Amino acid sequence: MHLFKRYILPGALLMLLLLLNACDSEKGQEEQLGNSGELHIAVAAGLRFALEEIGQAFEAENDVKVVFQFGSSGNLAQQISSGAPIDLFLSANQNFIEGLVAEGAILEESVANFAMGRIVLAVNKQTGLEIQALEDLLDEDITYISIANPSHAPYGLAAKEALKKKGLWHKLEEKLVYGETITQAMQYIQTGNAPAGIIALSSADVPEIDYILINESLHSPLMHMIGVASRSKQQELASEFIAFINSPRGKAIMEEYGFYQPEQGGDAP
């Protein structure tokens, strides 16, 4: 009997220690999600410039620090699905939000379409190229064409849809270079690593780039969706941030960066 206790007891202690460590880890995640002084927001890369300004304005009016995590909508959705400590998700694609709602990671009642985006045909000014239509991308002087990765970046998917609708996708596929996000795709053009590409209107307004709008009929609507994470301990504060984005001040900032409101329909800037 004593021999049995001698060998069994250390094993029981080990299990108890593992259980306590797991509880501490879970508690740490909960504390991170429930930090009263911070709001953690996952944001599609195409929204970066607009949201950074909105975040600063929100911080100025509230006793809270806004912490952004920028990336492609698909990658961010995967992280949230895996339990990343996020309070609010701003996606450039409706499907990613709906997928998270279906698995219980985003509160369905919080989901809303808060803005619409546009894509543009962009060219590096120093190339001297004059591009007025997607067909101009066939020019032999355009060796590389930058777009965001269409497998997880909604703006990249819109670019692919537009090229396919024009019958250009297979003709240009060998020239395409993918950015992991729409911001990276813009930077390829900005630096001249790719002379031209298709990027978000919201990220195209930089000194090195000229651009023209691409007709919205060539791709699926770029609906920007927002939703509160079900695991968040800051759901009330997240709702206040949503209200701020939809306020006159928030809408004005969004429009300044090339987004328009859903009720505007096709009357985009």
CATH topology annotation of the largest domain: D-Maltodextrin-Binding Protein, domain 2
**Shape category:** globular
Listing every helix as H and every strand as E from the N terminus to the C terminus, the arrangement reads HEHEHEHEEEHHEHEHEEHH
Q: Classify the secondary structure makeup into a structural class.
A: alpha/beta
Find the count of extended strands (DSSP E, 2+ residues): 10
Question: How large is the share of residues in beta strands?
Answer: 15-25%
CATH superfamily caption of the largest domain: Periplasmic binding protein-like II
Q: How would you describe this structure to a colleague?
A:
The protein is of the alpha/beta class. The protein folds into 2 domains: 31-116 and 222-264, D-Maltodextrin-Binding Protein, domain 2; 119-213, D-Maltodextrin-Binding Protein, domain 2 (3-Layer(aba) Sandwich), CATH 3.40.190.10. Helices cover 42% and strands 20% of the residues. The chain is built from 10 helices and 10 strands. The chain has helices at residues 2-33, 48-61, 73-81, 94-102, 154-165, 169-172, 182-190, 201-204, 235-245, 248-256, and strands at 38-44, 65-71, 88-91, 112-117, 119-124, 145-148, 176-179, 196-200, 209-213, 222-228. A 5-stranded mixed sheet has the order 2-1-3-10-4. Strands 7-6-8-5-9 form a 5-stranded mixed sheet. Helix 2 (48-61) runs antiparallel to helix 10 (248-256) and helix 3 (73-81) packs parallel to helix 4. The radius of gyration is 23 Å and the shape is globular. It starts with a helix and ends in a 13-residue tail after the last helix. Mean pLDDT is 87; it is low at 1-9, 11-20 and 22-35.
